[in-house]
Structures are given as structure tokens and as C-alpha cells.
Known about the structure:
The complex is a heterodimer of chains A (329) and B (568).
Chain A: E1 3-5, H1 7-21, H2 36-45, H3 53-63, H4 65-74, H5 80-110, H6 118-145, H7 152-204, H8 206-214, H9 223-263, H10 274-328
Chain B: H1 3-16, E1 22-26, H2 30-35, H3 40-45, E2 48-53, H4 54-57, E3 64-73, H5 77-88, E4 92-99, H6 105-114, E5 120-126, E6 131-134, E7 137-139, H7 156-177, E8 182-185, H8 190-206, E9 221-226, H9 241-248, E10 251-252, E11 255-257, E12 270-272, H10 279-284, H11 289-311, H12 316-353, H13 355-367, H14 371-383, H15 389-402, H16 408-421, H17 429-437, H18 452-464, H19 476-486, E13 508-514, H20 519-530, E14 536-541, H21 547-567
Parallel strand pairs in B: 1-2, 1-3, 3-4, 4-5, 7-14, 8-9, 9-13, 13-14
Antiparallel strand pairs in B: 6-7, 10-11, 11-12
Helix pairs in contact in B: 5-6, 7-8, 11-12, 13-14, 13-15, 14-15, 14-16, 15-16, 15-17
Amino acid sequence: MATRNRTFLFRRYRDALKGVRVPPGRSNAVPSSSGGGPVIEMSNTTSTPLRKPHRSYAPLSTEDPATSTVGTPTVGLPPAWVDVSEELAANIQQARSKMAELAKAHAKALMPSFGDGKEDQHRIEALTFEVTDLLKKTEKRLRKLSAAGGPFEDSTIRKNVQRSLASDLQNLSMELRRKQSNYLKRIKKQKEGSDGVDLEMNLDGKPSVREDDDGFDGMSFNNHQMAKLKKSEALTVEREKEIQQVAESVNELAQIMKDLSVLVIDQGTIIDRIDYNIQNVAVTVDKGLQQLQKAERNQKQGGMVTCASVLVIMCFVMLVLLILKEILF
Amino acid sequence: MVLVLSVRDYINRMLQDISGMKVLILDSQTVSAVSVVYSQSELLQKEVFLVELVDSISMSKESMSHLKAVYFLRPTSENIQHLKRQLAKPRFGEYNLFFSNMLNTTQLHILADSDEHEVVQQVQEFFADFVAIDPYHFTLNTPSNHMYMLPAVIDPPNLQNYCDRIVDGLAAIFLAFKRRPVIRYSRTSDIAKRIAHEASKLMYQQESGLFDFRRTEISPLLLIIDRRDDPVTPLLNQWTYQAMVHELIGIKDNKVDLGNVGKFSKDQQEVVLSSEQDAFFKANMYENFGDIGMNIKRMVDDFQQVAKSNQNIQTIEDMAKFVDNYPEYRKMQGNVSKHVTLVTEMSKIVEERKLMLVSQTEQELACNGGQGAAFEAVTNLLNNESVSDIDRLRLVMLYALRYEKESPVQLMQLFNKLASRSPKYKPGLVQFLLKQAGVDRRTGDLYGNRDILNIARNMARGLKGVENVYTQHQPLLFQTMESITKGRLRDVDYPFVGNHFQQGRPQEVVIFIVGGTTYEESRSVALQNSLNSGIRFILGGSSLLNSKRFLKDLEEAQRIARSSTGVV
């Protein structure tokens, strides 16, 4: 894994040559600062001419060659979709942090606690909803990323950005799904477990047995037991609701997954090969060029032919008119 | 020192330090080197959103200063010219230049001169100048691979280019491993000798600073041999999976193009066969054809089971499971259909060309004696209508190589028959092969009949019987590796370059075959490495041969040799 860094030597040569080359004043160019801040601002304010950002700067470069040669590499306007992609990336990041919170909440809810855990439940519900919503929203926006046309290279880049975000998103929703199904499973287990405990309490829990023995003539549930039953019923309903909710969000996630799988590259296939992609680009470019040439040819030919034929017809008409004129008058 | 890993490491290091959106620009050679080890989705993870070729990127003019350009190019003069033009009118935010080999001072000067806008951030040499197709097998994809057969006087500039490319590739291999080897070459080959000396000069004199690594106790060995020492291996039909696919359909940079074999749906027209990405292929690439059929059947059965369980989704749990397994399922589906397609196509070809019959005779010719029977078998196959032209030519070549000196009359008979049977046959090709790779020109004991020991060993093997008639041939390389393992490689046949001799047994051996390697040899090396004999072998070649490719090189060389003698 040896490497050799020639940057130093290169810089030395370059500096040496710079002295020879003149003009001075160029040295204040700092090419490395490609200026993130102002660039983004610009793209927000001027949203219409974004498709061809270099157009708006073209006059500038013809005006003053001395400064513009310095300016061209540094001043550049990223297309509008860059903002969108950044926003999407931020969304994904946000979803990820929410997921971490959710994981914590899940863990807390599953711990045995003395309270009824309603707060935890609400929190989980809210968080799950938020994350799912975020994922859905991101997915929708993602589709729009490659929608608008544009120059060829740009659209390739956009498609690739879309793919990369899509695979991020897919991983995230997979993770969310896995967490949820885990949670679901454990809640179910707990439910079964708690039912079992209740049953045991009723059968051989000493206090209740003794009470039964004492009041054998009553044959009906006493107040204490009724309250207990009601409570456990309420608990069951609650759990039922939870499960339902989680299942719903699982469904939604499944839908997202299916939609995303169209965008994501399958690993190990030919589409995942770098050279195949380059080749494809070259082929499409070639095809585009061919079609363009053909269209041009067609257009030219079509125009010429119609023009000529119209002229010929006109000639004929005129000739007939001329003959008629000669004959009639 | 596994090839694939080191190239991957280089690429990782190239991309990880540059933040933000990137465009990767390659040339026609580095694109192969990168493609075989790195995938598009991995590039996307590194925020590389555009990959372009250096000669096509100059076509468009649009400024894309929100992208940072990462160039990875061979330091050729065309590439430098491209770069010069592109640096004069920078389109990207910054330029990071990586070269796959050593830049000379002039090139560096040209680059520095053209960087008027000071957009270049770094210039580095990352020595990934080879195509690592398998962990222990690399190729250089050298253009005009027939050059090695021509004598040096015919076309000196092109031959120089050819040698330079190989020396560069070998230098890159050893720089990637951080080693300086001792060099040996096969005695009878001029080109191997020349390459060995040039490589030695580069490593020990011109760039001795660069190659001065921490001394390991024993230096690795670089053995440069000539394809013509073993012309038999590329002429045989193959019956192990990887080799067979290459022989019958053709593999290029781990890709198989099915376009000219039959009509397939768009995503099956070209498929990837990489031992790194495909577990099934990795497990079966060295298995023979019969076993692969069985294994594929098993895989299809497994897949059907999965597919069935995916069909009846009734409960939410089923659904959840399905979503969990969906990516896996898709991958499996693609894989299954890929291998099934390949094997079906190959068995069609085998049937059509009667390869079972042909191959049996080929193997007899390559491995066993018995001239009378061999002559009869070859004559019969020449008369057989369903045997294709290329198979006829190969049979005669194999016969000629084997019984070159023993009966010229029968050989002549076969030549005449071949000429009358195959109209496309170019006369004199077999003779040219004999002149190139005849018994007097070869180093090593190809047929194992030169000394008593080998003859005895062959007879013992004959008595024991062989497991599989179609895969009984062992390439000469196998013997060479065995001799190296036992420390018995003869100094007379494989001399050292300069005064750098081997002390003790080497632990790492790079065997480079000028003229190209075959997958049969790659298999042999992989099997040898799996024995853990304490020596690790790496195989490399100037290109990857199958019989078609080998014959094409031969024809090309014959054409040039003939036209040049005509001029002289």
C-alpha cells in the first residue's frame, strides 16, 4: 500500500512557473474556498434561472478577464436540487435521531414499572408517528428529485443522488421495522405473561382463595375481584390498541419499502457495475446525438421539400392562369 | 497481500478525505481496475455521484463548481494532454489528481504549467495499476497482446510500449505490497528476459528510493515466464465453471456478455461473475460442470421454497417477514436466474459442438502418449461434420505440439486434411505455432517426457487411473509451483537477474505470464494456495486468454511477421 505524494513538488513547480507567467494580483485567489454560504443564499433568492446557472455568469466572465479567470472556479451556483438533496439528507438525519429516541422509549416501556406507563405509550405513539411521517414525506420529495429535466450530466448526478438517498432511506425504514416488530413481539409476550399471572392469582393466590372459601355461599365475585377484572380488561384493550397501531405503521413502512426498492440498486447485479454505467451513459449520449442529427436532417429535408413543392405547384398554377389569360382574353 | 483488498484500500483512501459531492474521472484502463473491486452503490456511499471517462468529460462545457473532481488515471501522455486542456478551463470546484503509477518530472512540469487557476489540490501516486479479478489473480489487459510473439526488430516502438506497460504493472503490484522482489525469468524467452531486466533496473536503480521498504527477511520472488512455454493450456476446452464460461462465452473484467449468445431480457444481457460479490459463484467457480449442475439444482430448490413462502402472505407477521427478506429475495432471484441461464447456454454449446467427444481427445493428446491411437482419433474428428472449425484447428495444433518430431508424414496428412475441411483456416498457422512454441523454444518439461523422473511419474499416474477424463490435464504452471515449493526450480532454466539471489524459500511468489493467463491456471494457483504450504502464489498475465483469444493473437502475429519479412 505504498503511495507517493507529489503535491509538494507540484506546488513548487507551480509557484516557480507562476513567477514567470505574470500577471500578479492573481495570488490572492484562494481556490479551496468554494464558498458554501453565499452560494446557497443565491440559489434561494434566484430560483428561476437555476437550470443554467452558468448563463447568468457568462457576461461577467467576458467583461473582465483578469478577475473572471480567478472568479470562475470559485464562484459557482449549485443547481436548486442540491438544496433539496441537502434537505432530504437532513430529514434522514433527523429521522435517525428520532429512531434512537424511539429505541430508548421502547426499552423504557418494556421495563416493569409501577405506574400504568401511559406516558410512555403516548410518547412511543407520537415518536413512531413522527418517524413514519418523516420517512413518508422524504420518500415523496425524493421522487421529485429526478423529475425535472436538465442537462445530461446534471440529470445523471441527480439520479445518483436520488439512489444514494433512497438506499439510506431504505436502510432506515428497515431498521425501524425491525425495531417495531421486536417491540410488538415483546409486548405480546408480556401480555400473555400477564394473563398467566392473573390466572395464577385467581387460582392459587392465597388471599383470593381464602376469600372464596370464606364466602362460599356468595358464589359471586366480590368487589375487589370485579375491579381487578375490569382493570385487566381495560389493560387488554389498551394493549390491543397499541398492537393495532404498530401493525398499521408496519403496513405503511412496507409500502415505502416497496416503492423505494425501485430506486435502490441491487447489489451484485450489472447495474451496480461502474463500467456498465459509464458505457450506458456513452451509449445514450451517442443515441441522443444520432437522433438529434437525424431530426436535424429530417427538419432540413422536410422544409426544403415542402418549399420546393409549394413553389412547383405555384408555378403550375401561375402557368395555367397565364394560359387561361392568353386564351380567354 | 490480497490483490482485491489492496486496490479497494487505495480507492477508499482516495475518496475518504475529500468531503462533499464528487465526480470520479477515470481512463479506459483504470475504469477496469476500479470496476472489478468497487461497486456503484459503494461509490454512492462515498458521495461520488458522477463517474466519467477522461476523454468524454471534455466534451461538455458546463460549469459544475459544486462538484469536486477526483481523477484516477494512468500517467500516459494522452491523459496528461487531456488534463492539460481541462485544467486550462476548470469546470469543477477543485481537482484532486491521482495517478496509478510513477509520474516523471516532465509530466509533473506540464501539469504545473497548465494549472493557471490553481485549482489542483493534490497530486498523488496510488499504485493500483492492475485489474484484480480474483484475490490471487490479476491481469493488465494490455492492448495488442500479440506483440510478445514478434522478434524485437519488427516493431520496436510498439514492443517498447508493450514492455513498458508490463513493467509498470509489475512495479505497481510490488509497490502495493511494499516489497522489492528478486526476479527470475524463463531462459528461452527473449521478451521475458527483457521485461525482467527492465523491471530490475527500475526497482533497483531508477526508483530504488521508492522501492526501499523495511527489509523483510526473505524477499518475495517475481518469476516471469512466457506463454509459449505452455501453449497447450490455452488450447484446451475447459470443464470447470469459471474457465468454461470464459472459454465458451467469454468473461471480461468479471462481466459476461450474453448479447451474442442468444436473446435475453435486458437485465440478463450482461451479467456479473465475481467471486467477491457472489457467494454461490465463489463456492463453485472451480467445480466441474457436472457438479455445478447438481449445485444449481439445489439452489433452485431452495429458491422455490422461499418463493412459495413469500406467496401466501396472510397475516401481518407474514408480511413483516416478507418485507424483512425482500432485498435478500430479490438478490437471490437475480442470482438464480443468472446461473441457470449461464449453465443452460453452455450445455447448449457443448451439445452443438460435440465438445464431450472433442475434449476427450484433447485431453488424451495433452496428457497421455500413444501416437497411433491419437492420430486415428484426430482424423476421425476432422471427418466429423458436427465438429466446428475452431475445434478442428485446435486438435491439429495439439497433435502437432505433441508429436512435432516423431512423424512428419502424418503431420502433413493432418495439415492437408485440415485445409480441405475448414475453408477459413489460414495455411501455415500451425507451422507458425510450432516455430513460436515448438519443443526447441520451450523452457520446462511440458509433456513430462524429458527426464526419467517425469516419465516415471507419468506412468505411475497412468496406472492409478484418473478421476475425470475431462479435467485430467494439469497446466505446466502446476509443476513450476511444485518446484518452487520444494526449492527445486533450476537456476539454469530460470536464471536470476543481476546479483540479487534468493536466500531460502520465498514466502510470496508472483508468477507473471507474458502473453496471458488462463482461468485453468488461476484455478491451479487458488488450489495450491488453499493447501497452505507456506508459500503464497499470485498469478498475473498481460491478458486473459481463452482459445479464441490465443488463436487471434497467433494469427495477428503471423500476419505481421509475414508482411514484415515481405518488406525486408
